Amino acid sequence: MHRTIQDYDFSYEGFMESAEQSLPLGNGDVGANVWLDRTGTLHLLFSKTDSWTELNRLVKTGHFSLALSPNPFAEGARFTLCLADGMLRIQAEKASVSLYADANAPCVRLLAEADAPLAARLEVHNYRNRPLHFSYTNAYQYSAAEVADGLCESADRVFDVPGGVAVCHRNEGSCYRDMLRTQDMEGFAEDRPDPLDGRIFGVAAFAPGLATREHALVSRAPAREISLAFYSRSAQGESSATWAEAVCQLCDRHGTDARQPVAAHIAAWRAYWERCYVYVWGDEDAEALTRAYVCQRYLTHCADRGAYPIKFNGSIFTAHMFEELPGNYDRRRWGGAYWIQNTRLIYWHLLAAGDYEAMVPFFRMCLDAMPVCVERVARHFGHRGMLLPETVTFFGLYNDKDYGLPEERARGARRGVPVNHYIRFHFEGMLEIAYMMLRYLALSGEGALRQELYEFVRQVLLFFDEHFDKLDGRIFLCPVSSLETWQTCANDLPDIAGLTVLLAELETCADVPEALASLAARMRAELPALPMATENGARVLLPCETRIDAKTRNVENPELYAVFPFPLFGLGRADLQVARDTFERRRFRHGFGWCQDAIQAVRLGLTDTVKNILVKAARMKDERAIFPAFFGPNFDETPDQDHGSNLCLALIYMLLQSDGTNALPFPAWPESWNARFRLPICAGRWICGECVDGQKTVREEGTLAGV
Asked: CATH says 5-272 is which class?
């Protein structure tokens, strides 16, 4: 049976009970949650990857509803989300609606067609129609409100534009300089632009044949065909009038027609699915896993080309209301910052899938944060290097609650050291990003960012070289944490493993600057040994050499970071049994959210273990949702991007493991499952493989023309 993406359309019949049952559309930057309520009204909740408020919250850009009369959806409808085409089709007996987020324009397009003429009314629901004040009461309000001297988020504006209606939010202030002050970084930004102040974003709807009336669009006369175009735009420092003029120009350039652009849109999605694919079948579990995989790949691609990285806690598709603010869909557990331990998992998946261009927003954010991260180290610790926080805003600062509010820090906090003990000595994240950058350079063949990425690596190494003492000629990592689980310790395994693979990877890189090469050469000779012990006759890896705080505070297995993300142990490598024995003795066993059991199991060739984990994970969507890849909330938020990314990465590794030169196909493949895949070794080299009834075939090919 020859499986293709066309076999995995998602279908649903009836109404949606809430926005949490919505279906996602996206073009890499602009998104929409779409649902039909019990009145037959269609809702579109828009989002964008750079819609940051005054308090550094990533919020929705607008909520619109479309009512048709006579109502063709009074009895519900059949929904088909065609992943192959990136399109949603809503079908009733005598009418249909098609929607897509145009792959080639910042626009969501809608086409309604009916057997008999229909009248339409499009309304804007301005749920941010008054200034909002926040204080930290729970994880859903994780923002900078506590330090911003009463700063609130300004109200949105709804207004008519030529041929349409618009809603936009303009930041009339910013928490940025208050955060700098709280984090002992006063004066840093005197000659730098504020990343939040004056930011403006929103959506404008245009429709030929509809007229503006009281900030709504209504039909001039019933028609059998109604076309709507929703344009999204973000900018910095503009007035709402300037923003509106620019969004109208977007409409003039790209038009309101939903038919003409659709062929190019579909072609872009088809190219995406043809370039890299995985299809698995053989039983119900295999089918469920494939559906989860392709739906997550779709969801990832809907948000992977924006100005900022994909948010681990919901991406741009959160659709939950604040209980205390009915109608407000901006709730996001853990707020606007990026947790490095969570965000990295999304990008390991993208790297393994050959989505090299999609890596750039993450790297660009990290590179842009370097100046403040370097200044932080110089100012607080008096040495060179950079410190990228584990919980970091897109502009390089800590979450204020993590660094500590003024009253918390007044109780004796050391300058530069966060009060949050979960991240106080957590340095592994920037090591992992540095290693990911080098792997990206090796696999992608891209050189445009090479020197900037090398400078990031150098600054990370300088921190580890100068922040810690030397003991008997070796770097002595203390105090550090072994992830969040062992929070004060010495010589933690994740940092040692990260330094080891990073320094080894540098030896294989081209055009390494002399300053970086000489630093790396010296540090290789100064690395401490991986912490290990013998338990019941078996050599195993340890989370750290010495535990100062002996209590576990989270549920990670740091000792297995030497398997993933830092591949010192695994298939084809020495001492595989050491890693397998360590995995078997792991303290925490979880197969959901950000937990890495599946990835580490497959890297060790433990076929049955990874299969069992993935079969369960594939069915763990949020019970409130209908879309298969709306996983969660798990530890974070629905749709949980760590859960889906881990699932994708583990499945890819079951079919192909490669170091960029050599490839190992089917390293952990169940005998009862069939598969067809196309996966990268590196840029320009792809492996196409099949396993049908136990017969495996593999061939190598180059990049597809035009893809």
From this structure: mainly beta
